[in-house]
Design a protein that fits this description.
The protein is about 80% helix and about 0% strand. It is mainly alpha-helical. Helix 1 runs parallel beside helix 3, helix 11 crosses helix 17 and helix 11 runs antiparallel to helix 18. It holds the Pfam family Sugar_tr.
Amino acid sequence: MALQTQTGVSKKVQNKALVASLIGSSIEWFDFFLYGTMASLVFNKLFFPSSDPTVGLLLSYLSFGLPFFIRPLGGVIFSHIGDKIGRKKTLVLTLSLMGGATVLIGLLPDYNAIGVWAPILLVLMRLIQGLGIGGEWGGALLLAVEYSSKGRRGFFGSIPQMGVTIGMLLGTLAISLMSALPDDQFMSWGWRIPFLLSAALVFVGLWIRNGIDETPAFQEAKATGNIAKVPIVDTFRYHWKAVLIAVGAKVVETAPFYIFSTFIIAYATNYLGYDRITALNAVTIATLVTTIAIPYMGMLSDKFGRKPLYIAGTVAMMLFAFPYFYMLSLKSALWLTVATVIGLGILWAPVTAVLGTMFSEIFSTNVRYTGVTVGYQLGAALAGGTAPLIATALLSTFNSWVPIALYIVISGVISLIAISATKETKDLNLDES
């Protein structure tokens, strides 16, 4: 007989839910980060041509950032479905939407072929991606957390966060392999291959997600009639403070992340003279390190609490902001890799590992999908999608990395203020939230 957890669910079913959460999240973020990397390598040249390379890059990053502002809309739509109908059905919809848009990006003709329709269609596909990812994260998180027992919520909640880095790792590896092609072949067709391959990944993800049941917490809420009529209204009426905390706490998790993972590629190659493969490899190594670190940080949060790990990671990133850019300025492949591993691989890990679990513990079951999603996506819109754009604009205006380092420090201050308004939640039952 299988061992039972505190949720009354077997270990086998728990593990299956974890795999479904991780794989789906990994696929979503593989698709999403492909665009982020290609924005600095390909789209600025093929879809946003300009006589001024900085203008082309800014337009490309603008197309990268726009979906962050549609993500809250996707979050509201799909979290409403998730809190009314269930987590599982919602996750199938978000994965299908995201995967379809990604494949179509790989098939789009460029500016030379269809003129202004190329960037228009690219942005449209990007917006559809934003809708999908807007509802994906909250569902993947709750699939893990609501299947967990109380003493392991930190670990379970960290697993979907691994999907972010695994997806990024797959994306950067795919692009690194394609970058081995001669430049003309990479720019002609090589960049399209990773987008097209996502079709197979989506098929696998849908197959796994269709094989799981609804989460125990939602089943219980449905059985007792504890379903919000309009989740978004109840969220802002009764949980507005928790939403503000989530938005503020998200800032330091997302802004430095896009500096360390996306902006760095363009900055290192276009401004510091590093070759593309060196920059991509540094990000890949750092991503591998943080993927391994995240579940360990989740387990530590079950022992020491969410807030201590979050605060430690935030303060460490603030202190590292200036040394990070100084190490890059040494123009050494070794120091570029070391700086990226420290920032993205080590210091960012405790913050992202506890974020989702902490969010899930401050909202009640009947609005949990909506609460965690709206808080997360609003924070991502304000601080995530704008980060590469702001960093590029600061660099162009001041011709110095110092303002970008200050930008990272300020993001940390905002999040520390937000987290100070919440209490430790690791010992709460989810139905006590």
